[in-house]
Every structure is written in structure tokens, then in C-alpha cells.
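Hi everyone, sorry if this is the wrong subforum. Our group has a chain we'd like a structural model of before ordering constructs, and none of us has done structure prediction before. Sequence below.
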Amino acid sequence: MKIRIFALAKELGMDSKVLIDECNKAGVKLKNSALASITPDERDIVIAYLEQKGKPAESSEESATPETLTPQREQPKMRNIKTMTSRPQPSRSTSQKASKASDEDSYSQEGTSGVVVEQEEAESATEDETETSQADESVEETADVTEGRSAALKRRSEESIEETGKSDSDQAMTRDDYVPAGGSSGSNIREMKPIGSTRSGKPQPKPKPKSALPNVAAPPAYKQPVVPKPKKKEEKAQKPEVRLTADILEQKSPLAAHLAQHTEQKKKDKDRDPQDDDGKNRRGSLSLVEARKQRREQRKEGRRGFSGEGSEQQDVVGRRPRRSRRKHDSGNIVHKTDVEVEVPMTVRSLSEAMGRPAKAIMSIMFKEFGEMVTINQIIEEDVALAVAMELGVDLTFKRQRGALESVTEIIEQEDAPEDLVTRPPIITVLGHVDHGKTTLVDTLRKSKIKVVEGEAGGITQHIAAYQIEYNGHKLTFVDTPGHAAFSEMRSRGANVTDMVVLVVAADDGVMPQTAESISHVKASGVPMVVAMNKIDLPDINEQKVLQELTTQNVLPSEWGGETDVVRVSALKEMGLDNLLETLLLTAELHELKANPNRPAVGACLEGFRDEGRGSVAWLIVQKGTLRIGDAVICGKSYGYIRAMYDDLDQQIEEAPPSTPVKVTGLDSVPGAGDHFVVVETIDQARELAEERRHEGRADTLARHSGGPRTLEDILGSAVEGAIQDLPLILKADTPGSLEALRSEINKFEHPEVRVKILHDGIGGVNESDVYLASASNAIIVAFHVVAEDRALNLATQEDVEIRRYSIIYEVVDDIRASLEGMLRPELVQEQTGRALVLQTFSISRYGKIAGCRVLNGTINRNDRVHLIRDQKILNQYGIASLKREKDDVKEVREGMECGILLAGFNDIKEGDLLEAFRINEVKRTLESSS
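Answer:
Right subforum, don't worry. Here is the predicted structure as C-alpha cells:
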């Protein structure tokens, strides 16, 4: 069995590290760890090595056992010590007293420990005595050494006593000379340093002779009382000598103002009439006892006042009076008869202007008009006039010059005729969806990047502007969507244009959006040119197209009208030159001119947000020249023009009239259709934009005041019941797309369901949109935009649905399906069979059972039946039991007989007719009535 190193070391009384070194020397290789183990054979080898080594193992064993009480040390061989004569002492009594004092000190410090012969005294002997000593012989046995030393000490003591008796010059015995006969005893054992037995290079000096003293008991422990030291007297601090100069005297003290105020307060207290307050409220002038007595008297007087004792004590209250939080009126309210009010006005502003309470105005509006309004609600001018007449006030309205008026003046500013120059025409392309408008513009541009290929679904969903050059003349084309949802875009295109190209497909003719485009053109009053597209297709009827145009009051020139009809094929590039020449001729006839040296004025066709550029607005300049660095206001947006790009996305420095450009630098995305104006300073642009935003917020608050505003609305909503809402959050790439989405969504009308747009914005879906959708259980509609990564992760955690679309009619179809799914299904009864009661059976346990024959169809166990008697439907009941020949069955077919037990009806008679039916749930549509 293997043995651990630490166990073997404990057995041998050695340190583990020493044993490991000895094992390695003995040839037993071990790790430097006390947990290492050796075999019994290796143990025998190590023990044999240690025994062979001899005394070193014993000495190491003795040094490793600190529990031994008697320390042993190697001592040199005793030698004869000659008695040395000491220097003459002044007196024996004095030396004895000194030795006694030293003995007491040594006893108090060391207790009962043995006397140690110091090595320093042994080294102070002379060199002659050291040479004659026999220190090279070592003592072999400890007992012999001890006996020899005790005998030597006895001889030394006898000789020293004789010498002291003979001569006064002998040295007196001290405490250090005493060595006990039995060695050191007691429990306090001090570690003794061994004295080497080898002979050093220098001769060892002989120790001084010392007299031996008898064993004396240890004196009791005694501590000398500590006498406190007298405290030093602290000297008084000396004040510095400061000489007052003229500059110091002129300076004001930092406490001068406080002292002056305190002096004034004292004067006021002296001047106060003592009869007014009798000094009761002055806390600082009273002691604690007097103040306590005063408070007790005040409490007693307060109790008397509350109990009704004495009229003079009613006003004395024990508690501190509370301060009223209500503000005191500065004066009486003046009722005015002639009032001038700024519009728009609220109930509050009208009340403050007339000097009448707002409650009076609100009560009059409820009584006269049936409207429940709030104090911050905007009221119309006619309503305000009626309220003023009821209150006897002559009301006049003051209209401020708003931002719209100031911008309108800049836009409508007329230019001098000599400043006008010819400008390129702005041509808008209108028509029905999928009639080839964008393909026509791409062919005219001769661009390698086809716009129609970049549009989702092959249909245009954004308004865009491009400029081409033909025979040295420039023409600007504005491409508009043809889908029904983009009516506002077509309207904007018609309003900013000089002429219109109406694209009509030769195979389709006039379609609904074609008729709508004709209406926009007539409303704008601009000339129109009809482009009959797709003439390369077979089986087309041009006369049919011309006839349909005539029905829309568009008379072709070949039929004697004023509208030119040009046959083209955008895909085959047929008739395009004829179309461009016709457009240039029409522009020349109308003499299109503009002043390029005035501040730029134009319209915003579209706006969107770009990740690298920020807010980008697609503008078309109508008057003036737009340059980089101009301060621009566009709707509610403003900023400096930082960069401009043309339709080919190339950067330009300036944009003359009739030039479409993309600009960056606005603080927000402008609205589609907003007019832009270049102003002198950015501060003016900021002021106009803030005014427009304020007007927009006021209109929004007026429209969304919250809840029904009239009594009829409240009663109508109570009768109709709760309407289910479909909350939506709309995010689109451009304001035009957002406008089209809102327009299509607002077309859904139903008394039971409705769409509620919680928020709409430009740009991708962010985290705030997801939080809003999660809180309101809304669906996020992302049109031509994507969601951020963090928003997608958050939507997954919050279980929010984000739907992405690229085609607008897909959005409309999904919203329609969601609304129809929220409608309660329509319950429709479907007849399944008829049975005639031939005979009835009365069973006391169950009731009356009808024995029937099925005339047609099938009678099912789960069906309900109409009970018809004398061709009248009495009621409808469920079938409790259906049996055939004593067996329960699920259904009975035509021509078979069965027994039917109706649930909850026992008055069935022969000849009754049972008509079975089931109720089916049919999905309703928005067009169906509720």
C-alpha cells in the first residue's frame, strides 16, 4: 500500500519539503508536493538513507518538532575560567543596590526563566586566554555537560565570595551571573540560539567571571503608576495689528446692507402701534415660557370663538390661517357692447373679448344650435354673430394678413413686359391606366433607363417630370398616374401645366380615367392635344375613338373642332415627330414667356426622403430662376437649397423657368402640390413656415375635437351601437402616395365598420410606429417602404403585423377584405325537408310524439323545424328525439316514416306540417346592407 509523503514526514518528525529533498537524494524521484505517494520498498530505501546519514536526520527531526518543552543546543567544551579582577567599586552597598534593582527589572520582564550566558560577554575576554582554551573538543553527552557546568559554577561562586571578602575592588555579583543547577524551568520557554562548536579563525575570548546567586521566587507583577504630565499652558493668541488706512475706511462692509435692513425693521417695530397687535405675534421678543403661555391663551380664545362666546372673539383662531389659492380679481369685468375679434376665434377668445363668461356662450350655443362645445373649440363667424346678438354685443371681425396671403402676393406679382423671355412649355401627360403614357414619355426621352420598368406592376404610381430637346427647343413633360386612386396627382399635373397630352388607346377608347382627365383639363383651362396610342395593333377602330371623344365634348379638328388628334405608337416609335411639332406649334401660338431674373416661384410635384440626401423635393420652376443657396419656403417646409439635380440625376447650379429639379436642404418633406417661393432671408422663411404650421394645427383641432359635437350625433351613435374600427398606420415613400392611400381608404363607408388612420408619415417603419401599433392593436401598411431592423425585431416581440405593398390596388383589396371580415355574418335559413304528422302518441315520460312521414327532402336530427298549422307558422322548435322503428337515427329521408319529439312543445296535432331547416352564415360585403 502506498504511503503519502506528508504521512511519512509526520512519522519521521520532519518537514515535508525536507523529506522530499532527502527522497530525491536517496534516488526516489518525487514531485514537489506533500500529497505525493511512495511504495513500501521506496519507503525502506528512504529510511535506510536517513539512518545511514545519521545525526543530521535526528537534528532535523528534533527541529521539526516544536512541541518539546526543554530546548537543547550544542555547547562547546567547558574550559577552566579564571577569575578576573574587576575595577574598584565605589562602595559595596551601592553596587548591591544596583544589582538588586537590575534583578528586579530582569525578573519583571523575564519571570522565572533561566539565566542565559550572553555571547557578547564571552567574546570580551582577552586573546591570551582564548588560545589556552580547549574549545575544539565537542561535548558528546548532554548530561555530562550539565553536571560539569554546574560544578564549575559552584567553584566560581565560592571563589568570588572569597575574593569579595578579601578585597573591596572585586566585582559584585549581578543577576546575569546566576545559572540554575537544573537548567531552565517553567512554562515560558525562549528559543535559544545554538553556539557553534567549530573553531573559528579568531581565538574565542573567555567569558567574564560571574558570581552565582541562589534561586529566588518571582516577584508579583506590579506596574508603576503613571504620573500624568503637567499640561503646558497655552499662550494667548496674539491679534494682528491692522492699521486702518483711508482706502479701508472708504470700503463698505459686506454686512452693511443686512445691518441697515435690520435697523429699518427695528424702527418699524418701534413705530408700530402697540394696541394693534399688543406684541403677541413677535416671536423673537418672547422667551420660551412666555411664548408657550401666549399659545395656550390663543388656543383658549379660539375655542371660545368657535363655541360662540362673545362676538369679539369670533375672529380669533388657534391655527394658522390658510392662504387662499384662488387668485383675486384685479378689477371688475367690463361688459363691452362693441367688440372686435380676430379670426379664427375660440370660445375662450370670444368670452374674453366680450367680457362675458364662457359658460353663457356655451349654453347659448347648446340652446340655439344644439352644439356642445368646449372652451378651446373654434367657432364659425355666423355662430359667433348669433351669440353676440343674444348677448347684445355688436361684433366685428379682424382678419390678420396670414402667411398664405403674403406668399400669394409674391406668386401673383406681375412682371414687366420687357423682362419676359420665351420659356419651354410644360406638358402634362394624362389618360387611363395602361394606355401607354409612361412608355410614350420614355420613348420621347430616349432614355436607357425605362421608367415603366421601375414601376411596380407596370403602372405609374408617382408623378414625375422630365425635359427633352427637339430641334433646338426644350419641352418639359410631367408624367402622371392613370389609376383611379391618383386623381389628386392628375389634378396637380393639370394645374401646373401649359398644355395637356391626353393619351387614348386605340383599342380601348375612352375609359373612366380618360373622362376624369378631360374634366381636369377643362377645369384648368389649358389647351389639349389627343395622342391616339397603339395604332400598330390590329382590329382597331379609330372612328369609334373619335366618336367617344365627341361624347365628352372633345371635338377633333378633322371633324371641325379645335382639338388636334395625333396617331402615334409609343412602342413602335410611330408618329412621335408629328406629336412634338404639334406641341411646339401650340406653345408658340400661346406665347409662353417668363421673367428669369426674379425670385423663383413654382410648385412641388412630389417629395420623398432619401437616406443619403435627406428630404428631397421634386420641384418645377414656373417663374424666375432657382439657384443654390436660395432661402425657400415650400408649404410648411423651409430651408436653404443645398443641391439641385436634373431628371438624369446630374447636379446643376441653377434652374431657369420650366425646369424640373430635385432639391435638397429642406427641414422636412413638403406636401405634394405645395407652391414654393424664394424669400430674402431664412428668418422670413422660418416665420412663414411656422405660421402655416400653426394654421394647420388649428384646423386639425377644429376637425378632430373629439367625439360627436351635436345632440343628434350623440343620439344617432347611441341608436346605431358600437362601430368596429380597423386601426391603421400608413407609411409611404412620397406625400402623393400617402394622399392616394388616404383618398382610397376614405371611400370605404359602412354603418358597422370603419377605417381609423392613427398615424401616417413619410419614410420607413420605425420603432415608434411599432409601439403605437402595439398599444392600439393596429396594422402597419408600408407602401413602397421597408421597416428598420430594430423595428422588425420589435414587431416580432410585440406581435405587430407589418404589411408591405408596392401596388396601390392590392392595398385597397386587402383593406376591403379586412373590413368585410369584421362584419357580422348574415344568417340565412335553408330548407332541408318537410314532414306531415299522421298520428300522435302520448307517453307520460316524454310527452307527445308525432308519427310523421317525410314528404320531401331530409329530416336531420340537428335541424330546427317550423310548426305550420292551418298554413300559419306557429313557432320554431328544435328536435329533441328522432326515431325510426324504435331506433335513434340521425336523419330520415323522403318517403320514410319516423317519430319526432319536439323540444318544449307538447300540443302537436294530427295534420300539422313540420318544415325542417338549418341556419347558414353568409359572409357579407361592404356593398350589402346591414
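For your construct planning: The chain has a mean pLDDT of 73. The CA atoms of residues 73 and 193 lie 8 Å apart.
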